[in-house]
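User:
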Amino acid sequence: MSIPTPPRLLELAGKSLLRDEALAIASLEYLPTELFPLLFMEAFCGGHRESLMAMVLAWPFTCLPLGGLMQMPQHKALQATLDGLDILLAQKVRPRRWKLKVLDLRNTGQNFWSMWSGARAQVHSPMGPVAEARSRIRKCLAPLEVSIDLSFSDRIQDQLFTYLIWWAKQREGSLHLCCKTLKIFAVPFKNIKKVLAMVQLDCIQVVEVNCTWNLSTLGVFAPYLGQMRNVHTLFLSHIHVPASEEKEKERHISQFTSQFLRLHHLRRLYMESPSFLEGQLDQMLSCLQMPLGTLSITNCLLTESDLKYLSQSPNLSQLKDLDLSGVTLTSFSPKPLQALLEKVAATLQDLDLIYCGIVDSQVEAILPVLSRCCQLRTFSISGNPLSMATVEKLLRHTAGLHSLSLELYPAPLESYDSEGALEMGRFVKVRGELIEILRGLGQPRTIWLSTSPCPHWGNKTFYDMEPILCPCDSPA
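Assistant: Predicted structure:
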């Protein structure tokens, strides 16, 4: 029978102090810095409103990572914290112990709380208890930063964001509301517009649209995106063009692509199922102001001209991550893809070409340049109809890429019957042959195989339950 760990003396002291809230508040002036986080957690979880307000006034750290404590709903505890800030913001000089510069309402700061609660044995706080905490010098109050991540996913959360932004607007000049991440899920865009109109958009650095929009909605969102001039990561998913919007398609696309002229820090671009992009890729990429480090365009149709422009765009010469999964390349000449890989061979680290319909002849064309991608860490080409001979050539040409740690290949065509169904006997035989090939190459490798969707089981993919391991350094 295990004996539960007894509470630490520090924890007992905090609980004891909060039993007499008046005494706790009076003691804050002389309370050791290391007791503040634990006492704040006790007050926050226990709903000690007056103590929370008082501790905000005396907080001896530069940052209060409140978001790391908030498990929805915690509106009352948040309100007490904001009320404490109101008291402070009304003062013209700082209290003696006031060090707070940032109220962080993002889902961060767990390390801070776990360390000070004893969950981690560290000496110094990542939020930095300020050395002059006991200095009696009073300073003029500088604007306080309030950091939040906007995530539109449900009505309760939307109301909370609306209230926080309204609260911050009422105190403009005394504090600065900073929203660095914007995530949009299945929420009516009219609700989002109300909040975006109240936010300082140039603070936003990451934008994620994780819902289905019509192209016209993207056109309405575009002017807001253009004001987010510090965005470095943009993710868009499932932008459709209904038949009713075909006449206005060009205008909506122009509304969107023209905003890239204002995004001077964009480095990562992810586009999942952008049905409007076919034949329009040059218009978008020509507006880029900085070389991209990541480009992901997946599950959509592109033209061969689009792919050719990819290989010619000057802003793709420094790519580290390239994902074209789900973009059908079957009937395309291999030259544009070959030229693109030539351009990024010195920098490319992750290459995903899953379910592109790539055939043997196209792989043959890119093998020489693929072997020169010396920084490649992950390579995924599963879901493509490749023969055993081509998979073997891939293994041989990538054998010298010493940074390669994750490899996903398709089960060769020899694993299937004439109707396209996987035959386990054939698959086991092919798998054994691949193991022998890896042993012959004499390099430690781990590869994964996946099958194509089975005609008898619907749209399902089966992954080999175990990777093919070759730990030997010399032929077995």
